[in-house]
């Protein structure tokens, strides 16, 4: 089996999916202006090239992202698996107004996601964060009811710690944890990944390009608020990433390909989620499958850009305090 047509299973109970997933958030303007027609074309190109797992959330651009996906997958629902996050609430101006993972809210959120996506079930449904006011057992129990009703196929979690994962897994089998992981964000290796392996879970790994830091993306949109892109940290990080770019060029790879190939080499049982918003970006990252890294290559990459070379946290301080995965 070649790299291009292999699959990865999301845990013991989850679906078989293409080894790279497509994260759709940036198609709805999260990191600067986006083009709807190009987003749809990118989604269809991904499906044509075998990508099966599409990741979104009901709060991405206040539902816009789900509606965009609906248009792209029309007539092709059987070719994709939909991973949907819920819980974050927004006002009409887009400003966050809280998080809600109560059982009644869970069932309300999925009702609208099913309608916007134009589907009768969601393949992996997960709270985007831990609701500090609701026991995880209650939230997972509500999703388990949706599994029994045929509205959800698998249950996942996002940005939670090992203790929370263990508690949730006692309620219902879990397919995967969605967590940020990249060459410069490697904390999940300490306790989260061993816990997943122990429980027979997989992981869908977002932020593998570090929100564009590793590829030298323009600092706009949400990036303006991330510590790694601004001030002295931003300047220091740009210098460190320049060495990474030079190393990629020596290997005949783009920075995006090297970033994804490193994740695939380090965590072959897990699935990186790449946020391409154009066909050009998509084809670039998919090229990583044809350029696998050897153990020596992995060590060389880590020597060129050690995680301690990067200054700043992955989220602003207030958001970091809210992450169960950081406790």
Overview of the molecule:
The protein has 327 residues and is an alpha/beta fold. It has a single domain (16-221, 259-291), classed as NADP-dependent oxidoreductase domain (TIM Barrel), CATH 3.20.20.100. Helix content is 37%, strand content 16%. It contains 11 helices and 12 strands. The chain has helices spanning 36-48, 64-73, 103-117, 136-148, 162-169, 192-199, 231-250, 255-266, 279-286, 295-304, 317-321; strands at 8-9, 16-17, 21-23, 53-57, 81-86, 88-90, 96-99, 122-127, 152-158, 176-180, 202-206, 271-274. The strands form 3 sheets. Strands 3-4-5-8-9-10-11-12 form an 8-stranded parallel β-barrel, surrounded by 4 helices. Strands 1-2 form a two-stranded antiparallel ribbon. Strands 6-7 form a two-stranded antiparallel sheet. Strand 3 (21-23), helix 1 (36-48) and strand 4 (53-57) form a beta-alpha-beta unit. Helix 1 (36-48) crosses helix 2 (64-73), helix 1 packs parallel to helix 9 (279-286) and helix 3 (103-117) crosses helix 4 (136-148). The longest helix has 20 residues, at 231-250. The mean pLDDT is 94.
């Amino acid at each position: 089996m070649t790299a291009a047509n292999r699959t990865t299973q999301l845990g013991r109970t989850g679906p078989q999916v293409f080894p790279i997933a497509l994260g759709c958030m940036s198609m709805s303007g999260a990191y600067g202006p986006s083009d709807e027609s190009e987003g749809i074309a990118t989604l269809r190109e991904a499906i044509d090239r075998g990508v099966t797992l599409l990741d979104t959330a009901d709060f991405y651009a206040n539902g816009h992202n789900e509606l965009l996906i609906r248009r792209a997958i029309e007539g092709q629902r059987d070719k994709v698996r939909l991973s949907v996050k819920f819980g974050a609430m927004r006002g009409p101006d887009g400003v966050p107004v809280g998080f809600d993972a109560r059982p009644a809210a869970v069932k309300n959120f999925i009702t609208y996601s099913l309608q916007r996506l134009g589907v009768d079930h969601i393949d992996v449904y997960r709270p985007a964060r831990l609701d500090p006011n609701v026991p995880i057992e209650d939230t997972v129990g509500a999703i388990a009811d949706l599994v029994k009703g045929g509205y959800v196929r698998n249950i996942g979690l996002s940005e939670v710690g090992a203790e929370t994962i263990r508690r949730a897994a006692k309620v219902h089998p879990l397919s995967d944890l969605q967590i940020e992981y990249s060459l410069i964000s490697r904390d999940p290796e300490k306790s989260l990944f061993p816990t997943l392996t122990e429980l027979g879970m997989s992981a869908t790994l977002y932020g593998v390009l570090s929100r564009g830091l590793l590829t030298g993306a323009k600092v706009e949109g949400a990036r303006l608020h991330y510590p790694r892109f601004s001030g002295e940290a931003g300047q220091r990080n740009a210098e460190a990433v320049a060495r990474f770019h030079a190393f990629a060029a020596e290997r005949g790879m783009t920075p995006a390909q090297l970033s994804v190939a490193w994740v695939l080499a380090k965590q072959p049982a897990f699935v990186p989620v790449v946020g391409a918003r154009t066909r050009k970006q998509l084809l670039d990252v998919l090229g990583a499958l044809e350029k696998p890294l050897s153990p020596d290559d992995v060590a060389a990459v880590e020597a060129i850009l050690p995680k301690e070379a990067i200054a700043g946290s992955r989220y602003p301080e207030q958001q970091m305090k809210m992450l169960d995965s950081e406790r």
